[in-house]
Amino acid sequence: MNRPVNVVRATVAATFAALLTGLLTVPPAQAAPGPRTLYAAPDGRGSSCTPARPCTLEGARDLARTETGRDVRVLLRNGTYELDEPLVLGAADSGSDGRTVTWAAAPGARPVLSGGRDITGWRQNTDGTWTAGVPAGVTPRQLFVDGRRATRARGGACAANTCDATKTGMTGATATGIATWQRPTDAEAVIRIRWRNYHCRITGVTGDVMTFAQPCWTNSASGTDRTGPSWDSTTVDSARYSGVAFFENAPELLDEPGEFVWNSEARTVTYLPRPGENMRHARTVTPHTEQLLVIDGAHDVTVSGIGFAYAAYRRPDTDEGYAGTQAGLTLTGATGPVDHAGRFYTKPSAAVTVRGGRNIDIDNARFDRLGGAGAILEAGTKDSSLTRSSFTDLSSGAVYVGDTEPMPGTELAGERNTVAYNTISRTGVEYTDSVGIWAGYEAELTVDHNSLDQLPYSGISVGWGWNQPEAQTSVLRDNRVTNNRITDVMQVAREQHDGGAIYTQGAQPGTVVSGNYINRSAFGNTERDGNGIYLDEQSSHILVERNVITRVGYKWVSNWADYGIHNTARGNWTDTAAPALGGTGSVMTDNLTGLDRLPAEALAVAARAGARGGPVEQLRTDLARTGTATQSSTEGAAGPELALDGDTTTDTRTLSGAGTWWQVDLGDERRVRRIEIWNDASATTAGFDVVTDDTTIHVDGKALRPTVLNLDSRTRTVKIVTSGTGRVALSQVLVHP
After folding, report:
1. pLDDT (tens digit per residue) in 281-335
2. 646 vs 270, 452, 733, CA distance in Å?
3. Nearest to 304 by CA among 360, 357, 358
4. CA 151, 155, 157, 159 torsion: positive or negative?
5. d(CA 179, CA 188)
C-alpha cells in the first residue's frame, strides 16, 4: 500500500526521536581507570605513597599489589636508598591483563639503590695511615673513598720457582717474608693462568710452606674431575702456572697511597690516603648488601632510570674463595658431580637479578662501584631487555644472560632477550677473568649497539660447553651480536690470555656476528694472543660479516678447531690476515685484509657501532709495505719478507749470533714518525737497537705485539739489530710517515 510522503516522514522522525531518547537514557560505558602513581623516597614511611607522604620501597610495592585493572607507576624520589636486603618483586608484582607495572625515577631525580655501609671514626696513625672500626657483620673487601675505588694492599709478583704451588699448598713463605707477617691468615694469593683467575686466602704458614682455604685451593687445583680434564693444564699446580701475580691484604704490604688493609681480628680497616684526601671529611663506603633488586617470576615490569651502587659479592671472602673457571664463573662446593662442560659452575653475585622473568625491561639504569657483577638475567627469563644503561667500575662482569645447562626444559630456556645500547667500561677490576657481556645457552639473543672499553679479558662471550659430549647438542641458535664497539680489551697488564673481543662457543645455527668495530684487543701483548672474533670450541654455523677489526694482538678471526664447522667470514675489513678457518665447510670470502688504510665504507660501519657511535682509529700508511727486506741470516723458511706481508701471524727468523739483524729499505729517503715492531710467536726478539739513518733507539727486554716507537727521522732504511747474541724474529714491522 502506498503511504503519503508526510506520513513516512513523520514515522521516521518519531523513530529517530525514540532511538535518541533511548541512547540518552542508557548508562555510559565505564572508562578504563587512569594509571595509579605511587611515590617512594629514601626517608619514606607510612602507606599513603603520595607526593606529600611518600612510602618506603617496600611500602610502595605492597600498595601497588592492591591495584588491579590499570597501570601502576612507582616513582622514586631523588636520593640514596640504603638497603639491608634486596627489593624483591615477584609474581604478585607483575602487570596483568595488558597493564604494566613501572618502577622509575621521578622527573628530574637520580635515585640510587645502595648496598654500601659507611666507615666512620677515622683516626690518624704516626706512619701517615688512618684506621677506623668496622660495624659488626661487615667485611670490607672493597673500599671507596669519595667514590673512588681503593686498592687492597698488595705486593709484587712471586715466580713459580719461589712460590711453587702444589695440590696442597705453596712454598715461598720465607723468601716473600710472609712467614714473619703478623696476620698472614688475612692475606690472599691472587693467581692468573691463561683465561683463569684465582683468589684463595692463606690459612696457615709452617716454615716455608703456606696452606690455603678449602675448598678454594682444591677447586683451583687439578684432579678434581669436576672440570674437564684438559682444564687441568690451567690450574694452580699445572705446568702453565708461572707464579703468584701478587699477595694482598696484609699490613706489611701497605705502602702505596690509595691502598687499604682489613684486619679481621681487630675488625679495623687501615688506609693510606692519596694526596689531597682528608679522612676526617671524606665519605668512605664499603659494599655490604649483595643484591639490590631481585625480580623473581614476575612479568610485564619496567625498571627505568634507577642507579645501583655498592652491591657486595661475599663468596670470595669465605673459604670458597674465588676458583675461577671462565668469564667470571667459579667452581664452588667441596664436592659435586663430574662436570666437563661447566654445567655446574656458579655465576657471581649481581646488583640486579632477574629469574624466570617475562617481558622485564630494564632501561637507562646506572651500575657503578660494585663488588660483583651488574645484572643477571637467568632461569628461563624470556622476551626481556637491558638497554641504554651504563656499567662502570665493577669488580666482576657487567651483564650475564642465561645459564649453563645445554638442554634446559621449556620453562628454563632463555629466549628472545636483548642487551642493547649499553656502555660498559672498567669492569673486571678485581676478578680479571670476567667479561663485559656473557651469555650461556641462549636462543634468539640480541646483543646490539653496546660500547665496551677497558676490559681485562674478553668483551662479549656467547655460548658454553667446550665441545664436551654433554654439550654438543644444545638450545643455542639464532643469536645476533651486531654493531657493537669493543676497544682496549684483553688488557696485557691483567695477564689474561686466550680470549677475544667477541668470543663464542658451541654450535649456534643462524647466529650472526656483524657490523662490530673492534680495535686494540690485546694490543701490546708479549705473545700471540687476544683475537678479534674468536670462534672457539665447537663454534659452528656462525656468520661473521662486515666487521671492522684493527690493531689486534693475534688473529682478526680465529676458528682453529676442526670440530668448529660451517662458519663463514665474509666482507670484513682488517689490517692483518689470518689462516683459513678450520673445520669442515668453513669459508672466508670477500674480506679486505692486510689494510694500511680503512676505506670509507669501513669507516662508516665503525663510526656507527656502539651505544652512541664514536671515533675510529684510522690506520696509518705503511711505508715498509713496498720496501725490500733483508736479514743477516735465515732459519728455515722464515725469510725477511714475512715482516712486510701485512700478516701478524707469519714470522721472520734469523739464526742466533752476535749482532744479528733485520732491515727494510724503503726505496727512497722518507720522513718517519713512528715504527711498530711486532714480535714473533715465541717473543724471541729482545734487547735490540732500532737504527735509522740518523737515529738509534735502544729497546730493553722483549719486543711486544707491538712495541711502538715515536721519533722524527729522515731515513731510507730501518734496521733492527740485537745488542747481544740472540736472534731477530718478527711477525711485522710497520714504518709510518
Report:
1. 999 999 999 999 999 999 999 999 999 999 999 999 999 999 999 999 999 999 9
2. 53, 27, 9
3. 360
4. negative
5. 14
